[in-house]
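Example 3.2
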Amino acid sequence: MKKKAVIFDMDGLMIDSERVTYDGYVKICREFGYEMTLDFYKTLLGLRINVISQKLKEHFGKFFPSEEIIRRVHIYIEEYFQEKGVPLKTGLQEILQYLKSRDYKLIVATSTARIRAEKILKNAGISQYFDGYVCGDEVVNGKPDKEIFIKACEKAKVKPEEAYVLEDSEMGILAASRANISCICVPDMKYPSEEMEAKTYKVANNLLEALEIIKEDEKRFE
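Structure, written as tokens:
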């Protein structure tokens, strides 16, 4: 079926923010006497803040000041973006420009809260490409639940089978699979497991490769 919409995750997919976020957790956690490992950080990818907070307490103990650390990590990220600019992933401008020129509906579906997502995308200079947002504070159940992607399809006025999801995290892959939406995974800090890869439509090394996958699909329906 010909696709009419593309749903974009944000952190790790469009914005090269996961490494900055990890560095922030390492720095702030050490100030409180805790050590954030990369392996544990990867288990947090794609999750909403409230779930991340819960997982932090489960991992470090019930007295871990998760809310304060998350707040300070977000300040760290914001200061980094202000100082150095919002880092975009390879191929983002090209895929957004192409899809917009072909009249796809473009929707952001991110676990991040709306106020933060809108600010980051505006500062990145790409907010004008999108027809709508569904954010982590606007759904009852976050990824890996399908809710966020079903709402994104509703916002785009398309059926799930008429959309692609572009995701970097396993939580996003699982949510897209449960929503019956073709997921093109563009891995960031973690390549999907064999089980998760089997739930994708395709895996691409970067957004330029994801764009080529979409173009090849277009040819099949010309």
